[in-house]
Structure formats: structure tokens, C-alpha cells
Please model this.
Amino acid sequence: MDGNKGQALRERAAALFGRLRRENLPDTLRGLKGVWLVGSCACALLVLLALICALAGEGGWASAFAAAAVLLLLLSNIWFRERVTSPILGLGDTARRIAEGSYGSLAEKFRDDEVGSLTEAINNMSVKIGEASRAQSEFVSSVSHELRTPLTAITGWSETLLYDEALQGDSRRGIEIISNEASRLTVMVEELLEFTRLRDGRFTLDLGTVDLSSLIEEVDFTYSELLRHDDIQLDCSLPEEGLPPVTGDSARLKQVLLNILDNAVKYGRSGRRVELSASAEGEYVRICVRDHGPGIAEEDLPHVKERFYKGRGKERGSGIGLAVCDEIVALHSGHLKVENAESGGALVTVELPVKTQ
Model:
């Protein structure tokens, strides 16, 4: 009987303590701040008692209270590290992953306290950003696909009309403008589709052994003929011994080079010359494209590879060409660098790892 009564009393005491903790405690004593406040007050009380005992000549009690204060301080620091510092560091890692594009990443919630509330807020933010990003990608992909059909019709009919020799003067010039603008829009739509494929993980590489020397020579032959009509010179320089093979998707790497050359011509047209060179540098093959134009504004340099960033130049574009190139190069375990050449003009460097046996 006595055992049952004792058990009942303990259960009632535990229930009362739990009810007080959940309902009757003031807000200042709830959660981490409450524990910290109680611990701080207890430590201050122990220090005060140690001082009083020391002044009263009670050296033994003074030492005991001082030791208890030191022990409580050490325990509070350990508690603070485990309950506050470590979880916040974990939340910082999650926030960095979200900032780098891993939308939807979630942090683990350990307790129902202030840090737990912060964890819930960050997780909710991550989920909402992921949903918004997916909605944006689906919208861009849908619109891009819908734009393809009318653009194809506009381009086809404008080119057909240009074969009509009776079309002269402003009418012919207007059709030429329509054709050029439709072609530009088509390129932008294709870039948007590539962008959405990269974002959604639907972008795949057909990997194989790539002979970069042959690929660059092909790009040089194709592009130099096009530039000659615009009175722009393309200088290509390759080492006589050739370049070591790399593992990659030749079609995607060609896309990267053509896009970089397009930018060099677009933004460096005033220089009338573009240089394309390649060399083997240790474990990497380095491909450089340099124009002789005005270069890139210093305030734009840190952002030129960001999605939809257009800079302050007069040239128009979608702002995602270099972002797509950067993603493709990254998928090849390489690096894409954009900077200004020392003697003027912009310099874009692509580094690709040499194929290992």
C-alpha cells in the first residue's frame, strides 16, 4: 500500500510539474531563454553565497559554493554548445545549401524550443522556395515550347518572302528585320529550354573521348567563315603536338565554344579580332577566347555568369548563355573563368580535366 501511495504521489508531482512547465510558467522562463535565465541566476546566487561565507570566515562553505558556481558555469557552457551552438551551425550549413540552389533542403529538428522554431521557419522557407522554383521552371519551359511553333512559322515565311525579287525598299528591309529578330528570339528560346533542363535535372551528357584539337579546328573553320562576312578576324592557335583527349560530350563542348565566341563577337565587335587558343596545362586542357573590345565593366565581372544577368552594356540578350555554359563545364568537372585581359578586351577561359586511363 505504501508503495502504491508513493508511486501515486510521484505521478501527481510529475503531472503538476509538467502542467506548470507547459501552462503556468511566464514567457521569460520558457524555452532556452528560461533555462539560461535560471542557470545564470543560480550561478550568481552561488557566487554571492561564496562571498558572504568568505566575509563571515566560513572558508569551507565559501569554497564549496565557489566550486559549485564554477561547475554550474562549465555545465552551462556545455549545455549551450549542445543545445544552441551546434544546432545553429547545422542550420547555417542548410542555409548555405539553399543559397547555392539546393532548394527543398531540410534541416533536422531536435527539440521544441527557439532553435526548433527557427528550424521550422528555415525548412518552411526552403520548401516554399523549392515550390516557387519548380513553378518558375515549369512556366518557362511551357512558354518556351509554345513559342517555338510561331517563331518557326515567322522565320520560315520571312525567309520565303525574301526570295521574292519584287519585294524592295522599306518592305524588304522590314522583312529582314523580322527575320533577324525571329532568329534572335529562337536562340533565346533554345537557351531558356536548356536552362530549364539544367534546373530540372533533365540535362544529360553523352560522354565519350573527345579530341579537342579536331573540335576546335572544326569550330574555327565554321565560325571564321561566318565572321569574314562581318569583317572580323578569328585567329586560332593550337599546339603542334596536339591536345590530350578529355572525357566529355563533344556536342555540348562545341555549344560552349560557339556561345563564348558569339559573346566575344557581340561585345568585342569594335576590336575586329577574336583569338581562340588552347594548351595543355598540367592535369587540365585550357581553352581561351579573347576579344579586343572594351572589356567587361569591373562591377559586372563578379556577376556575368549569374542567370539572367545582363550587365550594363548596350548589347541585348537573354542573360543565361554564360550561365548555361558554366553549368555544362561544371558537369564536365571543369571550370569557366571570365576576366579582362591585361592589354584590353575580355578573356574567357575553359579548363577541362585531361582524360585519365
The first helix runs from residue 2 to 24. The helical segments are 2-24, 31-55, 59-99, 114-162, 169-200, 212-228, 250-267, 321-331.
